[in-house]
Task: inverse folding
DNA sequence: AACTAAAGTGTAATCGTTTTCAATTTAAAT
DNA sequence: ATTTAAATTGAAAACGATTACACTTTAGTT
């Protein structure tokens, strides 16, 4: 069933049928007859042919490191939501945290005529930078704040600043379990937030007991064991992610200490696990879903060519501190 | 940069260049010159034009109810893995648990020339049945076992049978928090597994205290409160999913009872939360990732037309019982 | 009534490939 | 040296839409 068949059945030209779908001057008389035939035959124009002719695919490429992470999955959910509203389709690329794959997907997606790309959870490298610069279709980055690239990101620093201040109300000897510092947002900025709060409280940031771990429960667990062994005085642990926090809680409990009586602890993310641990975890809620939705909206603007090309858009998302029992 | 340009530069016909990419008789001489030109210009054939001409898109459609669920995300991860290996691309459709959207996506994907479809986590309805029958491209269903539809599913019944037997070693008065029975796999089959173990132990299945809940932590929590109120003797709770189990644990703890001394509890899924609750949750591990991978492989066979059309393929996945502290 | 602008219409070119078909070249067999 | 079969080749016709262009009709002015 092609546009030709419909045209023939309706007794009009293919141009008329095309105009029926895409707008263009068309008499009511023809509009009606075409509508009738189209509905009777349940005809839908062939998407591939349209893409081929127009150069627009109706597809938005989404590049994500992993799907089995609560935060990415939530952002994806937000993206899917919003993409559907503008009647586009999501094309997925999973990089498995491999930098080459990220670049491969960007190039691939450009070639297969995606109308836009959303790039999630990555860090900048020279190669990525040139790829981004070369890329001819709009790209939005989430979770990070890259110079010159439209992005939607969290206020990591302020969030950590706030939660650290909360911790400092009752605690003095703080340890920090951070994310890899190559990750500007989750690594560097979160640590800076902690340090800022510390300094403001008159504590030299040099004295902060800071470790870097790897986002996992096990990583948090092992790191906490180290801390417990060599820093007996620690009475508050700030973690850059919930999972690491939960790993740390395991280690603390294993050491026979009570949370929060002996040691307080905080995370970031507001995962569902936070509600089922005992005590429940005090954490900062980041608006993941909103992040995905916003990314699509931003991209949509770019795709429509709305935004002034000089005005690179950035959106910084808010956050909430969720106080539970762990502090 | 089109095939025409390449042909001109190489001094051959477009047919030759096409043969270079797709196989077809071609002299070594031409093959070399074409290769040279292609590499120099970094030329890649336009995917849309290929689809248009061949009717094959290189795309596999994946329809999923939600992304922000650990199990679906894991299956997706497995799918993405495997799809990449066969050099296909994933097109995503999120139904938000809406039946109409499911059908909409199936039809849409058929029209936009997906080469295959994977349909996740759904239940059968008459409308879905006819849609499936009408659909001209291969479809694989995961997590459910539908008659006449190729599917990859878990051995839900045996899994529940096993974990119930484990529970029965030390407990007598069992309650069951189930999933909606409209869901054949997670609802009906899991309950049947529990019942089978009960009967085998000489307990009338009619006496099973069985409730239906909704997959959520809150659902588990509320249901458990009801049980605690009206069935004081219950000393073992079997839950159809981890999240409901965690909700139930909250309610049990809140009632001042100890797990597992007063009440034992089990879940299904082996979520990461199971390791951080106290006690850790005894559960059955389903191989989600493997499920996704298998679904792609099965689909791939179907797509290649390998499988005899009379021989509808089914794959039943194994499971493991993970014993932790909650029993 | 005559003229003009606007709206409605169809033909045919086009997008970038693959593939059929017939023509040509090469190699093998007599 | 012929004949026959096999391998190479390119021209041109698809695939299914959109759209520029030119033509016809309609409506609006004077």
Result:
């Amino acid at each position: 069933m092609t546009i030709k068949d419909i045209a023939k059945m309706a007794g009009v030209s293919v141009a008329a049928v095309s105009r029926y779908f895409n707008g263009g001057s068309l008499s009511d008389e023809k509009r009606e007859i075409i509508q009738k035939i189209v509905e009777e035959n349940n005809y839908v124009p062939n998407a591939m042919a349209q893409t081929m002719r127009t150069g627009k695919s109706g597809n938005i490429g989404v590049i994500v490191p992993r799907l089995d992470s609560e935060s990415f999955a939530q952002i994806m959910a937000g993206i899917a939501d919003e993409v559907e509203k503008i009647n586009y389709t999501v094309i997925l690329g999973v990089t498995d945290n491999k930098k080459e794959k990220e670049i491969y997907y960007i190039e691939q997606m450009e070639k297969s005529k995606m109308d836009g790309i959303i790039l999630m959870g990555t860090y900048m490298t020279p190669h990525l930078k040139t790829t981004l610069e070369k890329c001819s279709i709009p790209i939005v980055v989430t979770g990070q704040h890259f110079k010159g690239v439209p992005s939607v990101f969290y206020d990591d620093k302020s969030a950590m600043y706030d939660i650290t201040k909360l911790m400092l109300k009752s605690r003095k000897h703080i340890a920090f379990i951070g994310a890899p510092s190559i990750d500007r947002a989750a690594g560097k900025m979160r640590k800076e937030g902690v340090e800022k709060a510390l300094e403001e409280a008159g504590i030299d940031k040099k004295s902060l007991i800071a470790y870097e771990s790897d986002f996992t429960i096990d990583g948090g667990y092992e790191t906490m064991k180290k801390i417990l062994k060599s820093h007996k005085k620690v009475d508050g642990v700030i973690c850059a992610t919930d999972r690491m926090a939960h790993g740390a809680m395991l280690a603390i409990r294993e050491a026979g200490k009570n949370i929060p009586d002996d040691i307080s602890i905080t995370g970031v993310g507001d995962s569902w696990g936070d509600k089922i641990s005992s005590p429940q975890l005090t954490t900062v809620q980041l608006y993941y879903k909103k992040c995905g939705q916003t990314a699509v909206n931003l991209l949509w603007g770019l795709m429509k060519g709305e935004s002034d090309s000089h005005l690179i858009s950035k959106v910084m998302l808010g956050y909430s501190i969720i106080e539970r029992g762990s502090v």
The first strand of chain A starts at residue 59 and ends at 64. The longest helix of chain A spans residues 184-200.
